[in-house]
Every structure is written in structure tokens, then in C-alpha cells.
Specification:
Layout (H helix, E strand, L loop, with lengths): L9 H12 L9 H11 L1 H16 L15 E7 L11 H21 L2 E6 L15 H12 L5 E5 L3 E3 L6 H4 L4 H4 L27 E6 L2 E10 L2 H10 L2 H7 L7 H11 L1 H4 L2 E4 L1 H4 L4 E4 L16 E3 L9 H15 L8
Parallel strand pairs: 1-2, 1-3, 5-7
Antiparallel strand pairs: 3-6, 4-9, 5-6
Length: about 350
């Protein structure tokens, strides 16, 4: 047998080599793409799970497991008019004051884990017996206690206030040492000349209300109320229409005068009310308490906790005062590494 002889599988090997040379591996799928494909594939199940989570977080639907977010111990109540322009149009400066005050309280609440509820004061609520302009504090406190059923302390702040020392918590400032930080009787300071003694007052009772006094008497621009049966009774009697209708023509400062009347006549109210020095939570700017402008116990000094620009809307410049204290707070807490 003459001539060349080729193996029958040579061509097959060559073809196999060609296939190996042209083989392309599968493209890698990213994690995001894989996740998206799974969501699309099981979209009904994903939608169902999202619905369950939303119902668990934001509703009280029965028979569903509910995710509980811990309730804050302290709730800040800020009276504002975020809607604006229902009773009258606000000026740009009024908008600026409101934004500054709200941002200040939001930052403080977030820093210390407190609750914050902003109550719209645009329209005064009408009650069956009377218009009660300026009496919303009492009703709003009741609303807030229902809104935060597990909270212990409720801190009311008027709009024209600014927290100057945001790094200090209320617990650190005075709540953890409440009995030593406050005074219970009027011998120490009594600008209204109220009776200092009432029979049957037990000052060993717990403190459920913390307020301040200024040159004109009780000041409710910044005060605290603790949740208790006593505070529920106080809010009910404070809000009582019979007393209001008999006395409202004599009460220049309305809800403040009503509280002063209750304090001066009711032993059970007096025994659970305590006072902080004004500058502890309610320092005044120069211009307030003008008749006692030389008395330092009323007026803000550097590193006081809160400034209350009380009465600025009556002949003073609310916007100018707010901008001043904002800048001062920033200056007092400027980081060492910042040069501007």
C-alpha cells in the first residue's frame, strides 16, 4: 500500500480546537442586577411584604405583628404657624423667625432623642362657651399627651425662643436633679406678692409642673409638665369654662393669670408645682422687663440655656433678636478648627 495515510480524527481535533478558540464565557451578573431580577420575579411577594411592614409601622391593624419604636421620655411642644396667611399674611422676616425657631428645636430634639410636635396656631379654636384666644396651651398639652402616650415630660416652648446650649440635655441640665434645681415656696421670689402659705400643702409630693417667674409673675413661654393623674386634673380645672367665664375680663395674661389664681387658692396645685430661676430655661433679652432693666436675674448671659424673646412683637424687632441670638450661639460653640 503506497501514498500517505491521515488519521480519521485529525479533522475532528482541528475542529475542536477551533471551537475552543471561539468559546466565550458567560457574562457576570452584578449583585444589583440579580436583586432586581428576583424582585421582578417575585414582585407579588415583595409587594405583600412591603405592605405588611408599612401596616406594622404606621397603623394599629389587629392580627399583625407591630414594630415598636421606643417612645421618647421628653416631648417638645412648639407653637408655630407653618401654614401662614390664614388670618394675615406673614412677612419675610416672620417666615425667617419661624424657620429659625423650628430648625433649632428639630436639631435639639434629634440630638437628644426627644419627641417634637409642632402645633399650628394659625386659627384659634372656637369652643362652645367662648372664643379662647391665647388659651391653646392647655388644649394642645392634652392633645400632645394623647399623641405620645408613653412620654413622661412635655416641654412647651413659644415660637420666639431659641435653645442656646443645644449640647446640654434636659436631664443633665436639671431633670436628674429636679428637687435641688427648683424651689417650691414663694419666700425666695414672689413678684406678684401672692400668699406664701396655704394650709394643707404637702411639699414632699413629687414635682409635676416646672415653671418660671419673671418681673410680672408666672411665665409660660417655656415650662414643663409631667404626665400624671395630677397633671390631668390640672389641665381639666385650668380649662374649666365656669372659672374662665367668671374671671376672663380680669385676666390680662389669660392662661398665665388663670394658673396664678389656681396656684394662690388651691393647695393641691401648689404642692406639686416647682419653680426654676428664670434664666435656667427662659432668659430674657434686653428690652423685656424694661422697668427692671438693672436686675441681672432676668436677662440672658452667655451660656444660658434658652433665651425667650418675650413680647418682641410689641415694639421690638423679633427678627433682629432671633438673628442676634442665632449668631451668638454659633459663635459660642464654634469648633476650634474653624476660622470663620
Amino acid at each position: 500500500m503506497s501514498g500517505s495515510y491521515s488519521l480519521p480524527y485529525t479533522t475532528d481535533l482541528e475542529n475542536s480546537d477551533d471551537q475552543l478558540k471561539t468559546f466565550k464565557p458567560h457574562k457576570k451578573i452584578s449583585f444589583q442586577d440579580a436583586t432586581l431580577r428576583l424582585i421582578i420575579k417575585y414582585k407579588k411577594i415583595v409587594l405583600f411584604l412591603i405592605t405588611i411592614v408599612c401596616l406594622s409601622l404606621f397603623t394599629n391593624v389587629p392580627y399583625l405583628p407591630h414594630i415598636k419604636i421606643s417612645s421618647p421620655k421628653v416631648v417638645i411642644i412648639l407653637a408655630a404657624n407653618e401654614g401662614g396667611g390664614v388670618l394675615k399674611w406673614k412677612s419675610p422676616q416672620e417666615w425667617s423667625v419661624e424657620r429659625s425657631s423650628i430648625a433649632n428645636k428639630k436639631n435639639y430634639a434629634k440630638q437628644h432623642g426627644y419627641g417634637l410636635t409642632i402645633k399650628d396656631m394659625t386659627i384659634q379654636k372656637r369652643y362652645s362657651h367662648e372664643w379662647r384666644e391665647s388659651w391653646e396651651k392647655v388644649d394642645i398639652l392634652k392633645q400632645s399627651m394623647r399623641q405620645f402616650p408613653q412620654a413622661e415630660w412635655f416641654w412647651w416652648l413659644d415660637l420666639h425662643t431659641y435653645i442656646m446650649e443645644p449640647q446640654i440635655s434636659l436631664e443633665e441640665h436639671f431633670l436628674n436633679n429636679l428637687h435641688n434645681a427648683t424651689y417650691r415656696t414663694l419666700e425666695r421670689f414672689n413678684p406678684l406678692g401672692l400668699a406664701t402659705d396655704l394650709p394643707y400643702v404637702d411639699y414632699t409630693q413629687p414635682i409635676d409642673m416646672v415653671i418660671t417667674q419673671d418681673c410680672g409673675g408666672f411665665n409660660l413661654g417655656s415650662f414643663l409638665l409631667r404626665r400624671s393623674q395630677w397633671s390631668e386634673m390640672l389641665l381639666d380645672i385650668w380649662w374649666d369654662p365656669a372659672m374662665y367665664e367668671q374671671m376672663h375680663m380680669q385676666w390680662e395674661h389669660k392662661e398665665q393669670d388663670a394658673l396664678e389664681t389656681l396656684y394662690s387658692t388651691q393647695p393641691w396645685i401648689r404642692e406639686r408645682t416647682a419653680f426654676l430661676p428664670l434664666r435656667t430655661i427662659n432668659a430674657f433679652p434686653q428690652g423685656a422687663c424694661a422697668d427692671q432693666a438693672d436686675d441681672p436675674q432676668y436677662f440672658f448671659q452667655d451660656h444660658d440655656f434658652v433665651v425667650n424673646m418675650a413680647g418682641c412683637e410689641w415694639g421690638r424687632d423679633c427678627w433682629g433678636e432671633m438673628e442676634h441670638y442665632k449668631a451668638l450661639s454659633k459663635k459660642l460653640h464654634k469648633k476650634w478648627y474653624k476660622f470663620w
